[in-house]
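Summary for the steering committee. The consortium agreed at its last meeting that each partner would contribute one worked example illustrating the joint modelling workflow. Our contribution is presented below. We chose a case with several input lines so that the handling of multiple components could be demonstrated. No manual editing was applied between input and output; the record is shown as generated.
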Amino acid sequence: MYLGRVVGRVWSTVKNQNLTGQRLLVVQPVTPELKDTGRRIICTDATGAGAGELIYWTRAREASFAYLPEEVVTDATITGIVDELHIKRAAAGETKC
Amino acid sequence: MILARVVGTVVATRKDPRLEGKKLLVLKPVSPDGKEESGYVVAVDTVGAGYRELVLAVSGSSARMAEGCKDRPVDTAIVGIVDNVGLD
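What follows is the complete predicted structure of the assembly.
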C-alpha cells in the first residue's frame, strides 16, 4: 500500500460494466514527508475520500479485493483515509535502526 | 488505472484463440493534466473506444476482471471512455 493525496476527479459515462457506479479519483503518490513522488494515477474509491485528503491506496489485483464479493475491474483502489502519520527519526548522534 | 489516448489499432490474424473477436488498440499514456508520457501499450477494448479518444486503462492481472476478458490472455484493458478530468 502507498500514501497519496487526492488531487482530482475523472468523469466517465461509457464504462466497462464491472466499473459501474465507481467513483474515480486522481491520486498523486506522496512520500512519508508528504512530497509528491511519481506519476499521478486514477483510483477507484472504497472509502469516500474527498478532494485534498491524504489517503493510502492499494495497487494491482489486490485493489479489487476491497469490493469482494463484487468483481470490480480496478488496479488501484483508495482503501483508507489517513488520520495521523507518525514517523520516527533518529535523533542527532543516535544510530539509525 | 491510467489515462491514455488511443493512437492506433492493431490487426492480428494469427493470435491466441481466446483473443479472437477482441479489438486491439495502441495507447499512448497521458498524465491527468494532458501531457503525453513515455511508451506505448497495446490494450483490449471493452467499451468501443475510437481513434484519439481519452480512455481509462487497467493493467496487470486486474485487466482480466473486465467484463469480456475473463480467462483471456490480457494484461491491459480499456475500461472507460473519459468525459472530463477535473484537477483541484
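The beta strands of chain A are 2-15, 24-29, 41-45, 54-59, 76-81. Chain A has one domain: 2-81.
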